Amino acid sequence: MKVKVISRSTDEFTRERSQDLQRVFRNFDPNLRKQEKAVEYVRALNAAKLDKVFARPFIGAMDGHIDSISCMAKNPNYLKGIFSGSMDGDIRLWDIASRQTVCQFPGHKGAVRGLTASTDGRILVSCGTDCTVRLWNVPVATIGNSDDSSDNSMKPLAVHVWKHAFWGVDHQWDGNLFATAGAQVDIWDHNRSQPVNTFQWGNDTVISVRFNPGEPAVFAASARCLSDRSLILYDLRMSSPARKLIMRTKTNSISWNPMEPMNFTAANEDCNCYSYDARKLDEAKCVHKDHVSAVMDIDYSPTGREFVTGSYDRTVRIFQYNGGHSREIYHTKRMQRVFCVKFTCDASYVVSGSDDTNLRLWKAKASEQLGVLLPREQKKHEYHEAVKNRYKHLPEVKRIVRHRHLPKPIYKAASLRRTMTEAERRKEERRKAHSGPGSISTEPLRKRRIIQEVE
Asked: Are 105 and 123 in contact (CB under 8 A)?
């Protein structure tokens, strides 16, 4: 006769120290846990609600400028540093951790329209409407000592006076060349007082220029003109521009995806952003909609999975790189029209510069907990994210995750845009229904804003 005896060793249940956790043994057999999915659904619902409870994206404002902030630049060699330029010619280096000015770069007599830092972070290049390009030495010794910055002003290394005003500047990701945008695109070297190369296609005024992160010789520019609102691709190894894309509305800014260097996204005047593959410009890869006014600036996260946009409608939005609608919207009562936005180099924060002379620091994830997390806290957050992701398609979880409070003017403008879009769609359907078969072809939204591609 066999007798089954339950034998348990006390060593398996006894804690070695009073601070240790009690060991708990669970049987994960699904036959014994009939309510597992229901319990997980409730946890997903609670996790989505907790995200809304703890959503505090705004960290603080950095004030010091006395005019609108027109441009910003990251320092690739210093994680906590960011440069800003304003419409009165003032340039500042900020320490993001303390939100204080590290030093100032006085000298421009007009609006600063472009800022960029060299690959090693030691040289700052600025340009503006006073027809000058200035090179500055970025101070390494004063970084971190931002307590007394009253007399901490720098002298320019070089000042290059040119024939026309400048609207933008960008430095190579790897090299000593930088490009300026104005009546034409000029390529400069650090050690030369004259441009080493010049590109021009028609009589456009180029307002934005961005170098490709993967190929140092390739860069893209956007032009503004009543007859030609174009996106142009250039190659330094060729004597003329490579390709040109003519759109229906002006493109205000361009940003390349750092993880997929063949793709770039353009911030357009028609409230949308358009992602393109540089090898196939006749159709946009994705159209990113949600803004209700012109998109002024755009910047990709270092991870390449999302990008941030700033708009004339006084909001900052964060989009997935392949998402048609924004996953996050940031706004405050005091923030005015947003002219420039940047992701920090660690992809944790977003910095915006607006018309009300302030730089604002935001969390990239609104409900993220700041500071050092214990391993148990980290596991808890990861579990909540996994559960939310598993049940995100269910109506109640989806409604809570998607909901965002909007200011009344933006809510009304978005509603009006939806009404207009729906009316256009109905009109197109009726026109097609009352026409001969095949006489009217519907053009997809990805191609609708493109007029022509020129090679």
From this structure: no
Examine the pLDDT at 391 and tell me if it is beyond 70: yes
- In single-letter form, the type of residue at position 175 comes to G
**Residue 147: pLDDT above 60?**
no
Q: Cα separation of 50 and 64, whole Å?
A: 36
pTM: 0.89
Query: Could you read off the pLDDT of 222-233 as tens digits, one per residue?
Result: 987 656 788 999
Beta-bridge partner residues of 18: none
Question: Tokens standing for 62?
Answer: 């950095």
Tell me the pLDDT band of 424, cut-offs 50, 70 and 90: very high
How many angstroms separate the CA atoms of 297 and 300, rounded?
Answer: 11
Q: What is the pLDDT of residue 220?
A: 94
Q: What is the largest CA-CA distance in the chain?
A: 105
Q: How far apart are CA 333 and CA 314, in angstroms?
A: 9
- C-alpha 215/C-alpha 195 separation (Å) is 21
User: Tokens in use for 211?
Assistant: 């170098």
How many angstroms from the chain centroid is the CA of residue 396? 29
Q: Which residues contact 287 (CB under 8 A, 6 or more apart)?
A: 272, 273, 274, 275, 324, 445, 446
